[in-house]
Design goal:
185 residues; alpha+beta; 40% helix; globular; PAR1
Length: 185
Amino acid sequence: MASYQGLKRLVGIFVLAIAFCMQAVQGKISCENLNKDSCAFAISSSGKRCVLEKHMCRTGYEKYSCRTSEIEAENLKEWIETDKCIKACGLDRNALGISSDALLDSHFTQKLCSTQCYGGCPNIVDLYFNLAAGEGVYLPKLCEAKGANARREMSEIKSSGNVAPGPESGFKSVNFKDAPAMAPF
């Protein structure tokens, strides 16, 4: 009996050690530590969205880096978007910044409003919900609109041509927390 209790205690210690190791390996998500293939549409542990930036090296080659933006995700943290959601929502993992201009593209909004994207990718829906709200458009209404009504809804979007700023741009970002409603989940 004593050896059974000792073995049980040893297994318990082993399980705890593995749990601590897993937590150390997983760590916290810092945008600056993400690579090009996981940066776009990711959210750091602090809840700030990550943005992919491109720089030209002295040798003429392009270099990509991931930076923390000032845009906060609503109720989401430590999130690296899945390839499944990127594909379902018609996005590009190599996107440099984002813009509400994408909402003017009927092919994009069709993918964004699809069951696979709208119903299964809360991070992306939250992001575009806030972008649409910033343009005065209610995303669920845009997704419900069909045919001529969809064109009418999209025509309400008046693009400013601005893209969400990177962390070192010196431009004050828009605070999407003041949007009129929350993204539906």
